[in-house]
Write a structure and sequence with these properties.
By secondary structure, the protein is of the alpha/beta class. The protein has 13 helices and 12 strands. The strands form 2 sheets. Strands 1, 5, 6, 7, 8, 9, 10, 11 and 12 form a 9-stranded mixed sheet that branches. A 3-stranded antiparallel sheet has the order 2-4-3, with no helix packed on it. A hairpin with a 4-residue loop joins strand 3 and strand 4.
């Protein structure tokens, strides 16, 4: 990245467990919504109004502020045909763009290879959090995984190697049941060779960073602060990956959803303020996704696994607004008699970001051609 030509950067935020889209962007004029959710429903007067028919959850003030400024594209009803309700399988589908078979390559690993074909920069893709996400995994592709940048900078190379081994072992335990020992063994044998080189570069990052933005102490805030530190250090990272867990609220949803949304939206807001203060925001787009939505009816304490969720594209060059259609909440339109129907395929949203923002042909990465949206006022990609 240079002062005259900035490369586009993608920051992915994975919300693990299944964010409840209907209780994030509430259909405040729908009697069906309130009939179906006597326990977890959010009263219209409590919402942060987006329009005459939709309101943000009151804990999503950080996202509403960005939306009101025109920097958030809300993708309504995102999903795919025959949506899986298994956390593992659903996340695997989102990570590989393959709903009908077990794939061997993550979509962002493919992106990393496209951006750095010879693997010269071990920091082309960096993940913050425990374990390497499947989206960044493919034989021969190096993605550097960091649990905590401050702790990382104090570790010896031996300790870093031990951390990498733990991450790869976690990856092995997670994915061997789904994809088989052969694929996992091949991946573990060929990946991570450049991680220690990347570690040497990352050790210097915390000392180079200064900011007046005070992030919270929760995991997603810390992860996004680490993203800001690495991005502003100019190490050539093009793909960042972060995770925020806890969204599988079958019970005690109201308090959990409120806590998680506040953490998430405040962290994103702080992250954008930080980037702007460093004049490093224009080249960044954020994609927020979750593996599925929740069922329309509450279960008396929370909501169960469903479909037809939501995603968000955030950035200073985003043309903010609502994209695709909010799924119908009329009982006669419910999928399987209990779910929201998806209105846009997630692979089209991936394709949108890849082609319009990153300047890549998405066809091979998302395994086909899907309808895209137009969520950018302009991009850094040459027309």
């Amino acid at each position: 990245m240079t002062a005259t030509k900035k490369d586009p950067v993608l920051v992915v935020i994975q919300l693990s467990g299944g964010l409840d889209f209907m209780n994030t962007l509430i259909p405040i004029t729908s009697g069906e919504y309130y009939d179906a959710r006597p326990t977890v429903g959010i009263a219209a007067e409590e919402t942060l109004r987006l329009s005459d028919r939709l309101g943000w959850h009151p804990a999503a003030a950080g996202l509403k502020e960005l939306y009101d400024a025109g920097n958030v594209a809300v993708i309504q009803g995102i999903g795919y045909e025959n949506s899986s309700r298994s956390h593992f399988r659903a996340m695997d589908i989102w990570h590989t763009c393959e709903p009908n078979a077990i794939a061997t390559e993550g979509w962002l690993a493919h992106v990393t290879r496209e951006l750095d074909p010879t693997g010269e920069n071990p920091l082309t893709a960096v993940s913050f959090g425990r374990g390497l996400p499947r989206a960044l995994a493919a034989p021969g592709v190096t993605a550097t995984s960091v649990g905590d940048l401050d702790h990382f900078g104090l570790m010896t190379n031996i300790q870093i190697e031990q951390e990498r081994t733990k991450d790869l072992e976690l990856f092995k335990r997670m994915y061997t049941p789904g994809v088989g020992t052969g694929i996992v063994r091949d991946y573990l044998a060929t990946t991570g060779q450049g991680v220690l080189k990347g570690a040497d570069l990352l050790k210097e990052v915390p000392g180079q960073y200064q900011s007046d933005v005070e992030y919270a102490s929760n995991p997603i805030a810390k992860a996004l602060r680490d993203v800001a530190r690495v991005h502003t250090a100019g190490l050539g990272t093009r793909v960042f990956y972060t995770q925020h867990a806890g969204y599988d609220y079958h019970s005690h949803q109201p308090l959990m959803h409120q806590k998680l949304l506040r953490e998430l939206t405040e962290a994103i807001n702080d992250f954008m303020r930080d980037l702007r203060a460093h004049e490093a925001a224009e080249e960044v787009t954020i994609l927020v996704f979750t593996e599925f939505g929740r069922r329309i009816r509450d279960n008396g304490s929370g909501t169960d696994h469903g479909s037809g969720g939501g995603a968000y594209i955030i950035g200073d060059l985003v043309e903010g607004g609502l994209y695709a259609e909010y799924p119908s909440i009329k009982p006669e339109d419910w999928l399987y008699g209990e779910d929201l129907k998806h209105t846009i395929d997630f692979r089209g949203v991936y394709g949108t970001v890849l082609e319009q923002w990153m300047g890549l042909d998405p066809t091979q990465i998302v395994r086909g051609t899907y309808e895209q949206i137009r969520p950018y006022r302009r991009t850094l990609v040459a027309p």
